[in-house]
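Weekly sync, protein design subgroup
Attendees: M.S., D.O., the rotation student, P.L. (late)

Item 1: inverse folding check
M.S. brought a backbone from last month's batch and wanted to see whether the design step gives back something sensible before we order anything. D.O. pointed out we never logged the input encoding, so this time it goes straight into the notes. Structure tokens as presented (466 positions):
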């Protein structure tokens, strides 16, 4: 493949065609479970270079693995161990091309870090509401390729809902652009929607038009302690009735989650007694801080009188709000410090989340006595992170050997309750085979047909999703 790499060097410069040890930082996944191999890491700086590189790879029948911030959790952004593909890092495509405060849009390149997009929106008095734990390192291209969710989905939707147009390099090296920022364009098939959530298997996203929103006048955060997920659902219903679209976040966390955060970070809920479940909720108000505070306090008072919650604390400062959010945001890091666990990113009809937790907890305790469930997630949109840790004192390696059986039990339960085995992390490699069990033959055939039509040589991130 010397001729291919020489041609790539001629296109983007030798300094941006990495080989050997220089590729190491790109080849291991975020959780450090797998390290792949690549012919080279290519680092183009503009969309035209991406298109030219794709054409070269197509001529040489060489597969391409696109990569943004490499923060994915399903091995979707690293190559396999074969070493026959090139990895295309989009980190140098990091320009914010335009901000339109009248149209409430921002046009950005795929390598822009999410946090930088949030900050630029704020500089213009606007809000880009996508918010993730990895926002300091994940990129917009990766967010779009996995249709990322995060804490604001309840009010603002997934990344797909926040995108009005895309620029994409096709598998043939053509540049498809729909960066018009239109909210209505009923002129045929939704090509934009095909590439969002496709994990780079149909083409490479190089730029996007994103929706912006007015900055809220006030944000109010509260933490409530309660007994059951069913009570959390009743609180969600009450909060939505009282607050409408002002309710922007509603996060469920089990006691096990906050126990881990306290053990490893010293942070604890501001309550005298522990609770079986916790809900972190936030209002974003367009009127005033006083209005938001009164609205939130009324919801909590009504919930206390109805017996839905046992205690509640409202943040009275930005520092207190940050402290409450840190309880939620540190759960994953606390899990990592505690040791290995078996992770599940699932979605369910909101009304069935309580039943799913009860049934699946009981099932796992029966099959794997003493296992510990670390359950948290975005209750308002039905996305649950249902993680299973080994029983106390049990060897981690021995427990992790049962991961296929644990996954089967959890995902079968998800399916019985009408849910999906991937809510916001994607399919990648880790869930590719399981997809065959839970997708219908018609869905799978249509997915294969789309892949064959758009990428007949199977050069776009092969081995991922399908």
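Designed sequence read out in the meeting:
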């Amino acid at each position: 493949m010397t001729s291919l790499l020489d041609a790539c060097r001629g296109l983007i410069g030798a300094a941006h065609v990495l080989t050997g040890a220089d590729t190491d930082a790109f080849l291991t996944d975020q959780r450090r479970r797998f390290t792949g191999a690549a012919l080279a890491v290519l680092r183009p700086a503009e969309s035209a270079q991406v298109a030219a590189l794709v054409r070269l790879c197509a001529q040489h029948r060489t597969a391409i693995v696109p990569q943004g911030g490499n923060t994915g959790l399903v091995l979707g952004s690293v190559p396999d161990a074969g070493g026959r593909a090139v990895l295309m890092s989009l980190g140098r495509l990091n320009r914010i091309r335009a901000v339109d405060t009248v149209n409430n849009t921002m046009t950005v390149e795929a390598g822009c870090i999410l946090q930088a997009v949030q900050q630029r929106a704020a500089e213009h008095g606007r809000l880009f509401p996508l918010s993730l734990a990895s926002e300091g390192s994940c990129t917009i291209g990766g967010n779009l390729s996995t249709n990322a969710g995060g804490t604001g989905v309840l009010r603002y939707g997934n990344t797909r809902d926040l995108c009005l147009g895309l620029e994409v390099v096709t598998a043939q090296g053509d540049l498809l652009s729909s960066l018009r920022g239109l909210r209505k364009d009923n002129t045929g098939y939704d090509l934009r929607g095909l590439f969002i959530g496709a994990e780079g298997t149909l083409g490479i996203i190089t730029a996007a038009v994103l929706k912006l929103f007015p900055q809220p006048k006030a944000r109010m955060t509260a933490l409530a302690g309660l007994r059951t997920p069913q009570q959390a659902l009743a609180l969600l219903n009450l909060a939505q009735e009282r607050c409408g679209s002002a309710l922007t976040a509603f996060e469920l966390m089990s006691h096990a989650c906050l126990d881990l955060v306290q053990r490893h970070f010293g942070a604890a809920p501001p309550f005298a007694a522990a609770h079986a479940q916790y809900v972190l909720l936030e209002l974003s108000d367009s009127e005033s801080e006083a209005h938001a505070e009164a609205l939130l306090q009324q919801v909590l008072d009504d919930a206390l009188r109805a017996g839905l919650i046992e205690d509640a604390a409202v943040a009275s400062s930005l520092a207190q709000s940050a402290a409450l959010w840190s309880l939620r945001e540190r759960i994953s890091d606390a899990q990592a410090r505690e040791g290995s666990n078996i992770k599940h990113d699932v979605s369910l009809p909101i009304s069935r989340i309580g039943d799913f937790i009860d049934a699946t907890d009981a099932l796992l305790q029966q099959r794997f006595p003493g296992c510990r469930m670390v359950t948290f997630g975005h209750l308002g949109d039905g996305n649950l992170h249902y993680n299973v840790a080994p029983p106390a004192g049990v060897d981690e390696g021995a427990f992790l050997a049962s991961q296929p059986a644990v996954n089967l039990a959890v995902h079968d339960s998800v399916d019985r309750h009408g849910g999906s085995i991937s809510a916001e992390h994607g399919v990648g490699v880790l869930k590719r085979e399981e997809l065959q069990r839970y997708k219908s033959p018609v869905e799978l055939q249509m997915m294969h047909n789309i892949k064959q039509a758009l990428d007949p040589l199977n050069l776009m991130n092969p081995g991922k999703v399908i």
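Discussion: The longest helix spans residues 289-305. The radius of gyration is 23 Å.
Action: P.L. to compare against the previous round before Friday.
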